[in-house]
UniProtKB/TrEMBL annotation:
InterPro entries: DUF4914. The lineage of its organism: Bacteria, Pseudomonadati, Bacteroidota, Bacteroidia, Marinilabiliales. This is DUF4914 domain-containing protein.
Amino acid sequence: MCDLLNILDNKKITLPSDVQMILKNCKSYNTFDTVKQLATAAVDGDQKSFEVKYNIPGKGEVSEAVVHKVSNGISANYTEAYMRRRDPDTMAIADDLPSDKERFSDKFGYDFDSLRQETINWLQEQDLAVFFYFAGRDQIGSGGIAVAPANAGFFAMGLAMLQQIIPVNELPEGFSIDSAIYVAPTFRHTHFNGKQVVVHKRSDDLHEIFSYNLYPGPSAKKGLYGALLTKGEKEGWITAHCSTVQVVSPYDNVTTFMHEGASGGGKSEMLQNIVREPNGQVQIGENIKTGEKRLINFPIFCSFNPVTDDMALCPPSIQKNNGKLTVLDAENAWFIRVDSINDYGDDPFLEKLTIKPKDPLLFLNIKSKPDCTALVWDHTEDAPGKKCPNPRVVVPRAIVPNVVNKPVTVDIRSFGVRTPPCTKEDPTYGIIGLFHILPPALAWLWRLVSPRGHANPSIVDGGGMGSEGVGSYWPFATGKMVTHANLLLEQILQTPRMRYTLVPNQHIGAWKVGFKPQLLMREYLTRRGNAKLRSDQYQNARCPLLGFELNYLTIEGAKIPARFLQVHQQAEVETKGYDAGAEMLYDFFRTELKKYQTPELSETGKQIIDACLSGAGVDEYLSIIPMDYQYSFLITNDNE
């Protein structure tokens, strides 16, 4: 304790008072400087297998996870299926600062201060792991300290990978501790009926995160995402919920995509390769009724350089004021869901990266044995014959080939939606074609409603189309919805050269398509570069919420059938099924957009929402925020 305090004192670094108290009175603590040290701690030193367990009053010994040392890192499997996915209802706010989120006292019926003191007391009775981190990149973000039970080393390892761990001796002078994470997993059982709970307590100079569970999603990852969003609220910018990729066409054209969406919306998949069939063709989809498969020939794919996987910083300091948005990765590692990888060869790029990595990786919900090699297609089962839908691997961005480490300027912002099958007998909102072009005003609306979508694999969900909330990052934000709505709209208004697209995954009408739509969109629009769409190639969509639909699409000589572009042309759907699905979509928009009708919403925002609620057509959205046709479409006069 004295050594650490002396080092910090010499560097003019001040620990939060409660952290000082915990470290002064705890049974013991170790300060960690590297991820490799935490990987060793995850299995309690030289052990090959380690069980994370606690004595719970009234329950006895409870096992949280079984951790294995594997040849490619650390593999952790939760003993309870519920803990293998993020519960969307984890957050509670324990302060009086502005927030639309549920307050701890309202949610649980008592003041958090008493539980906070219990948490501090509990930590003082433990052997602890402590380390410093920086959430963000290039000095944009939040410095902080993590305090966790020593036996939860795998959790600490995940946090140290996702947000850069900083060795004590390398802490810069005056390092500001703006956030702190306290991990107390036993409270899940003693206070919260086994549920995942993460409590945020904000003040002017410290954002505290109390993690009462050991799944990194809502705390180590999304909890610190909340700290970044809080910082952005104060300073007038957002951390976008997106993946970003620079794509290089076979003709050396470079196009940068920023793909946003709720959990399961295809962000990580935007960084994946297209997998060919055994005969070399590419399957667009398979008809769920007839079993028909539609394949196309593809001589050569684009190459790509990954930029971000899930979170992108958009502060004013990196903007180029050129009409486009510039972003920077907010993470030090990527929390990659691998549910779409079910066999060897499904994703050769990620398989090669994870089988023999340069640095130890953290696997979650992947089958393993001590000293084996954890394989990303070998998913843990929640029940016999039922695979966990949320297998994960944490990959340091530093080992990702061709990763881009500097800010990049975005050309196209796409938004992904998980869509169910749609037929005229069973209509749903699965009426989105391969991709749509959105006017800026509609692009903003989709980011407000952010549908969580069909069969979400990442979170505990009852199904249906529930909303992930503003920006699709609302579950992680601590402040006011309207604040973020205004920030997102201002960002769109300040970047008039951006193009916006909407893309489904899983189904297009009666066709099972997986994530092919966004990958084919990536291939097509990269090949076009700045070339504009012909005026006869698009038209107003039958459902105005979908902007413009395509009339035809050809990639490398392969024509995409019209039924994938305009769902009402499918014999299984027709206009009857399409229109019924469109009405469901409108009902969802009407319900969600009413939440933003507050006096604080900007005047432009009010216009757009009023237009939507009154059933506006595409042209009306364009009259509110004009689309810059110079960069988006080719009109007839351009050829004259």
